[in-house]
Specification:
Elements (H helix, E strand, L loop, with lengths): L4 E6 L2 E7 L4 E7 L3 E11 L7 E12 L27 E12 L2 E11 L7 E2 L3 E14 L2 E14 L3 E2 L12
Antiparallel strand pairs: 1-4, 2-3, 4-5, 5-6, 6-7, 7-9, 8-11, 9-10
Length: 174
């Protein structure tokens, strides 16, 4: 759209697997689509060519309720909402990314939040907050490049909420 603004979309394919003492569950399907806009606030120097660079982005968007939310187990009961391919809710996504590059090294700081709303079943997944610190180093290997990266990720997920108390506890069943 513009050299400082971009739009992206993602449609995940989910494969949830849960093993217990007496059963195994595998749910597969398309999840909820996310549409994001990113605005480049700071871009000091050419990130690919210069030895030092700074990049700062603000991200915002929405997660659309495109995945299934009504998958049943073998007894005809709904699976836990966190096991469903979709959430059934329109959720809001916000974030920031800062990258500092020095020669072949970079450090990246990310802060992200997903604010969830209630779905048709009167169930709301807990809001999610994530912080990431990542160190990366480019290395020349033969005629190509290799990127080594390590990261620390902190996730904080608030409790789910249900107005009709259909789901609670570990298994999400009444």
């Amino acid at each position: 759209l513009h050299n400082r603004f971009q739009i992206s979309a993602a449609l995940p394919f989910n494969n949830f697997n849960q093993k217990g003492d007496f059963n195994e569950v595998n749910l597969v399907g398309l999840g909820d689509m996310t549409v994001m806009g990113s605005f480049l606030l700071l871009n000091k120097t050419n990130f690919e060519k210069d030895e030092t660079a700074h990049l700062f982005l603000i991200n915002f968007g929405a997660k659309l309720p495109t995945g299934k939310t009504n998958v049943l187990d073998g007894t005809g009961k709904l699976f836990n909402p966190r096991m469903q391919p979709g959430s059934g809710s329109l959720d809001y996504v916000f974030g920031t990314n800062y990258i500092m590059k020095l020669k072949k090294n970079s450090i990246q700081f990310d802060l992200n939040a997903k604010i969830n709303t209630m779905n048709e079943s009167l169930y709301q997944l807990g809001n999610q907050y994530r912080g990431t610190i990542r160190y990366s180093r480019w290395m020349n290997v033969g005629t190509g490049n290799l990127l080594l990266s390590t990261a620390y990720v902190y996730d904080h997920i608030l409790n789910d909420y249900s107005e009709n108390d259909i789901f609670h506890g570990m298994h999400g069943r009444k």
